[in-house]
Hints:
Layout: H1 2-12, H2 16-40, H3 45-57, H4 61-74, H5 79-91, H6 95-108, H7 113-125, H8 129-142, H9 147-159, H10 163-176, H11 181-193, H12 197-209, H13 218-223
Helix pairs in contact: 1-2, 2-3, 3-4, 4-5, 5-6, 5-7, 6-7, 7-8, 8-9, 9-10, 10-11, 11-12
Amino acid sequence: MQFLVVLLYMMMVASPVEAQVNTSQHWRDSLAVLNDLIRREPLSVDLRLRKAAVNIELGQLDYAAEEYGRVLELDPDNLTALYFRAYVYNQERRFDLARNDYEAILSRVPRHFEAQLGLAMVKRQMGRTTEVVDDLNQLVQMFPDSAVAYAARAGFEREQQKLELALYDWDEAIRLAPGNAEFVVSKVDVLLMLKRKKEARREIESAIRRGLPRGAFRDWIERCR
């Protein structure tokens, strides 16, 4: 038993290089160890959460959802199981079930940022545009210092062709996270959609002066010419 615990620990904390090399075999080995441990300790919530995470890594989404369900039978208020089951359901395009899990989290923890964002994104997949706008507005109001909240709203606004609104939100996201090159690229994209090439180029130059790598914007510089 102790040997299995040590082996599992070593698998879970492998270095980045080892993780790249071992890939799927690494996760299959982890799953075999976890299945053995769970047979010995079937009521262990921690082991079942670990197994579900490995199922996700192996693309076994149905098994992961089932495992999170077993965790919730043992611990109905387990937010980790609810959150990641919602993620799995979303990946499987079972949007109603994902929404139910996110809402269950928010009924317990109304200021759960990840669940609020996840719920908005699920509703986006469901085509509930008005609800998505309301949810993202609420997210920004509740977390005004979150660059991710502004970025999420900006991305949706771009999708809806509300480009001036998207520009404002990208500005806020960049203000809060000036070192994020993806935010800069997203703002430049909107500026180019508005045919404001000079502003787009200035945005890139400003980012480079802040220390962001020029290479991150190579293709965008060409598009700004």
